[in-house]
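Record 1 of the preview.
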Amino acid sequence: MKYTYRLLTFILASALFITLNSHAQSKGSVNDVAFIQGHWKATTAQGQIIDGVWLQPEGENILGFMRMMKGGKADLYEILAYEQTEKGLVSLVKHFSPGLTGHEEKDKQDRYQFIEASKNKAIFQKEGDPGLRILYEKRSANQFVIARGSQKEGQWVFNDLFVFNRVKL
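->
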């Protein structure tokens, strides 16, 4: 009887530890996206040129920006902030037209909640849109991809939006 009680206690304690540990890991940290730091350049199939720069992590945040060019002229700017919050890591995005005319309201931004990460890979889900996920993936030392994910037949499928190559200075 004592043996069964101890075994049951051990199993319950182990299950609680695993549950709490996996929950804590699901919050993420800026270290989960640190692989994106650097200067990157992409060219889309439509000929749009995108420069992306992400600073190194500091003070529980990473700041980045993208400049999207079409026909040799600025088309869109994005500011991206990855911040550690009490609820976990979030990705915040604001869009601007040339002249820094904001697309979102003054105090609003697109918010993406951290879902999971593995080496050189992180996934975020758009708040308010459970059907949209964004994947950041460093595929090699000189290639980094941002992909858009949606569910198809119960599985998440990601399609590349931007395939960046490292800019060598």
